[in-house]
Amino acid sequence: MHPQPPAAPRPIGRPALGIVALVLAIIALVAPTVAVGPAAFTVGLEVAPALASPVPPSDLAVLAPVRSWVLVGEIAFWAGTVLGIWAIAQAIVAITRRRGRGQGIAAVVIAPIGFVVFVSVASGFFFAGLAAGAPFGP
Fold first, then answer.
1. Is the pLDDT assigned to residue 131 strictly greater than 90?
2. Angle of helix 101-133 versus helix 67-96 axis, rounded to 10
3. How far apart, in whole angstroms, are the C-alpha atoms of residue 73 and residue 135?
């Protein structure tokens, strides 16, 4: 029995796969966050008077006047979700195939952070809109 020499490591491929994953992760972080800020603020601003009324509405009809802004927020959310999942999947492939491992690792870290940033910005702008649109006095 002869000892087997250690296997040579797989060659490192071109980093294009990891770079694309990183770009997708950055787009998934930035684009939906930029889109949701004004949408959330406008929704908060417009629904504040209805929510502050003595008899607040009990259903989602309060969102009818701002349905287009709600749609912008939803499209931003789902687009960011799809891009983020795509970025993570492609990053995992890039890491395992050694085709842009560093960029793939960065994409795996950045993509989930995009969700946290999105929710934080949406909440902050929505509550800022509520505060700006709230009627003063009794």
1. yes
2. 160
3. 25
Tell me which amino acid residue 102 is: G
Q: In this predicted model, what pLDDT tens digit does every residue of 29-68 receive, in sequence order?
A: 999 999 999 999 999 999 998 887 777 677 788 888 899 9
User: Please, what's the b/e burial string for 28-52 (b: 16 or more CB within 10 A of its CB; e: otherwise)?
Assistant: bbebbbebbbebbbbbbbbbbebee
What distance in Å separates the CA atoms of residue 62 and residue 46, rounded to the nearest whole number? 9
Cβ burial, residue 10 (10 Å; 0-12/13-18/19+)? exposed
Where in the chain are the domains? 16-51+63-133
How far apart are the C-alpha atoms of 120 and 110, rounded to whole Å?
A: 15
Phi, psi of 55 (to 5 degrees): -115, 90
3-state secondary structure of 60: helix
Where would I find the H helices in the chain?
16-51, 67-96, 101-133
More confident residue, 125 or 6: 125
Asked whether the beta carbons of 92 and 4 are under 8 A apart, the reply is no
